[in-house]
Amino acid sequence: MQTLLLDSDDVRANAPLPAVIDAVEAAFGAYERGTAQMPAKSYIDLPQYNGDFRSMPAYLSVDADAPEATASEDWDAAGIKWVNVHTDNAERGLPTVLGTMIYSDPETAFPLAIMDGRELTMLRTGAAAAVATDHLAVEGATSLGIVGAGVQSYTQLDAIAAVRSIEEVVIADRNAERVADFLDHFADRFDVRAGEISEAAACDVLSTVTPVESPIVDRADVGDHTHINAIGADAAGKHELSDEILLDAKLVIDDYEQTTHSGEINVPYSAGTLTDSDIYGALGEIVIGEKEGRTPADGLTVFDSTGLAIQDVAAARVVYTAANEAGNGTAFDLLGLSDVEP
């Protein structure tokens, strides 16, 4: 038995976004139905290095008969992502976020694959936003605003365009070089232009992917029926949207413990400005039909996405399955068990 080593190119090449979106939606469903295990994300804080480590394990079991499942047979998957945020890495020529995913066979615990967690994180984060957008955005949404032109912005557009007919894209970022790279990347596929945050916020769908700790999107700038994917907040103190937006919106979260601790709502929730009664429900509840997604009566909607380990495991399964079938990646005998039949 051998383990597949999958670098960032391998992960990207073996992760068709429609399949990743389907798998992530199924993961939300499994989590809500109680057929997934996801211990709380644990943190190792390293202030002396301006960084931290995060450990994200999960197991999920998907029933092929579940309405949101797209596979023809039941499946389960397990894994753990070891990821970081080191803010000084840019000065060292390294990404701020690195990550490694260990994808394992639930039955035997054999490590089936070790793959780049950075690319995987971008894919599953985009997929989660796509699932939320599909359930919460207006059906006829054609414009997408993105605040923040970093690496996450690319999969936000790719994934959301898979569930809505996006034609116009407004990208807002103070870094002109990043904006130029984004425009160049998508110029052949979309009507994409640079704009102010207020212009991006007026679109049918808005994704915010910044690490700020003081809100940069005001209520007055957001359209009456805009759907917002709040992606950037992933630690206590981070906060992209004004409190007025969160209080006015149909507010949907990915996981209660994570969002109240480190999601977009963590600051107003800790202050008591926003309470449990202001949270409409979890995305998983909408996925399995326990609660409604967008209704004709809805105006502004917000999805607070903190990033869940079940998403990583679901996406890793897509990548491993495709790579294994295609013979991609680098197989190696990690455990010295090459003579054992799989």
UniProtKB/TrEMBL annotation:
Pfam families: OCD_Mu_crystall (PF02423). It comes from the Archaea. It catalyses: L-alanine + NAD(+) + H2O = pyruvate + NH4(+) + NADH + H(+). Its EC number is 1.4.1.1. The keyword Nucleotidyltransferase does not apply. InterPro entries: AlaDH_arch-typ, NAD(P)-bd_dom_sf, ODC_Mu_crystall, ODC_N. One of its GO terms (molecular function) is alanine dehydrogenase activity. Keywords: NAD, Nucleotide-binding, Oxidoreductase. The active site is at residue 81. Belongs to the ornithine cyclodeaminase/mu-crystallin family. Archaeal alanine dehydrogenase subfamily. This is Alanine dehydrogenase. It comes from Halonotius roseus.
